[in-house]
Amino acid sequence: MKEQSLRSISGIPTLIGLLLAGVGIVSVFVMGIRDQSAWLIVAGLLLGVAWLFAVAGFYMVEPNQAAVQSLFGKYIGTVKDQGLRWNNPFYSAKKISLRVRNFESGKLKVNDLDGSPIEIGAVVVWQVVDSAEAVYNVDDYESFVHIQSEAALRAMATSYPYDQHEDGTIALRSHAAEIAKHLTEEIQERLAQAGVHVSEARISHLAYAPEIAQAMLQRQQAGAIIAARTRIVEGAVSMVEMALEQLSARKVVDLDPERRAVMVSNLLVVLCGERGTQPIVNAGSIY
Fold first, then answer.
1. Which of 192, 208, 224 represents a domain boundary (last residue)?
2. Is the entire prediction scored with pTM above 0.70?
C-alpha cells in the first residue's frame, strides 16, 4: 500500500461559513417557536443536527504531520496541508508524525565474528516517509522500528570481529564509518516495508562482556607491548647498522668479528633497554 495525496478544504473559511449558517439555523428555530410553526421547528432541529455533523469534519494538521484518512476501514488518502482543515465528517483521520526522530537501543549482549561475547548499542535516526505504509503495513510502526533495529544490530555485530587482527579486516572498534554504513543499510532493509527512512545509525556503546573484559584487556596490552617492542628492535637494529657502517667508512676503529659482536650486543642493550644503562669506562686497552 502506497501513500496517496488527498485534497482537503481550508478550515478557516469553512468555519466562518458554518458559524453564519449556525446563526441562520438558530433564527429559523426561534421563528418557529415564536410563530408556533411545527415545520419551522422541525426544520431548525434537522438543520441543527446537520450543522453539528458538519462541525465534526474539522481537524488540525501541524507542520511535519500527516492525517491518514479512511472511510469505514478503506484507505482514502493522506492530507499534509498544515493548519485547520475540513473533510467529509464520515472520514476517520489518524495523525502520524513525519518529523525526524531518534532512539538509542539498549545494551545488547551478542557474540562477535570470533565468538567473543560483547556488549553493543546503537543510535538510530529515522522518520516516516510513507504514512500509508506506516499505518497499514505494520501494527505499531514505532515498536516495529525499535525491534527490527535491535535485530539488525545483532545480525551486524556477528558479522565482524571486535578488534582488527589482520590488515584489511574491518572490525567493530576500528572502522566506525564502514560499520555505521552497514548498520544503516541493514536497518533500512528491514524497515522499508513500514514506510520508514533511516537517516543514520551509529554504534553508541561497544565493550567486551564483563566476564571476559579483564582477559581481553590483558590481551590488548600484550599486543600493544609486542608491537612497541617490535618497532623498538627494528629501530635499534637500523641504528646499530648505521653506526657500524659509519665507523668503518670513517676508519675510526677497526674491529675484529669478536669485538664487533660485543659492540653490537652492547648497543642493542642500550637502545632496547627500558631503563637507562650505567656505562663502565675502560681506561686501558680494549685488547
1. 208
2. no
